[in-house]
Amino acid sequence: MSPLRYILLRLALALPTMLILLTVVFLILRVIPGNPIEAMVGQKAPPEYIQQLMEQAGLNKPLYVQYLDYIRGVFTGDLGRSFIDNRPVIADIMDRFPATVELAVFSFLVSIAIGHALAFLAAYFRRGVDEAVRLYAIIAYILFIPFFGLALQLIFGVYLRWLPIGGRITPGLEPPHITGLYVVDAAISGDWPALVSALKHLALPSITLGIVISGVFTRFIRNNMVKTLEEDFITTYRAAGLPRWRVLMRAYRAALVPTITMMGLQLALLLQGAVLTETTFSWPGLGTLLLERIQYLDYPTVQGVVIFYVLIVVFINIAVDLVNLAVDPRLRRGIWQ
Fold first, then answer.
1. Domain count, the chain
2. What is the pTM of this model?
3. pLDDT, tens digit, for every residue of 200-224?
4. Is residue 212 part of a domain?
5. Which helix (H) or strand (E) segment is 41 a member of?
6. 194: exposed, middle or buried (C-beta count within 10 Å: 0-12, 13-18, 19+)?
7. Rounded to whole angstroms, how far apart are CA atoms 36 and 328?
8. Burial of 61 (0-12, 13-18, 19+ CB in 10 A)
């Protein structure tokens, strides 16, 4: 099987899951009490005006007709227009998406750094350090993001006043728009005050989300390293007289292969955790957009954001599979033959 056929097969297998999820979201939004038009214009608006807006939005059509129009629009690339500002939903999504990407990438780097470092230390020292690392992994995994984020805001933002507690950058310091990623745009344009401000605003939310996700990394990599250290080839290295740290590095490289899939899944999970993190830190990303529009029952925007999340998860999973194929010859032989 060629790589292109493999990718197309994965996309085809993802279509039923996407369709089921889109249908569930569509039905849930329709059974939530309330009228999206009344939520937008207020209940004191004239009934004739509300009825006119409902006709324009297509909400007076039978439910199955709305569903067919919705599915048709999704598969033709039209996510509709927001009930709130009448902007194309895809425009609202792309305005907020860079902020979510920036938060997810920095949180991912924090979680990888913590998870890999602690797992290596646990495998190197064992006993007391290993027990402490396992305890950390359990505590980090069960942390509630809003509570943990508020605690960090209180310590580093209110008491110590080292870092800002919300927002994405200091007002007035926004760098020229190139990619939409403030850190990247500030670095490209040489706007150092904007770069410093963007990094300071990123610190607390990325540390909060990164620590929560690092619990999974720490436990998984630690378990893989302990298992790898019991393999025969590690015994051979030890018998050959290799220093302990070199043996551990060989085991570390071997233990990384099974963690690639976990890293991809955690990157997708970061996008879900970003909803809570963005709300806690007033971060203007897709998570805050989703919650804002849920409050106003903005069907097109809520559905569009969910679709966008699903597509990201699908493409991340495909990318993880391709990376696994690149680093593991056994998988390549099984797929390409």
1. 1
2. 0.82
3. 999 999 999 889 888 888 888 888 8
4. yes
5. helix 36-41
6. buried
7. 51
8. middle
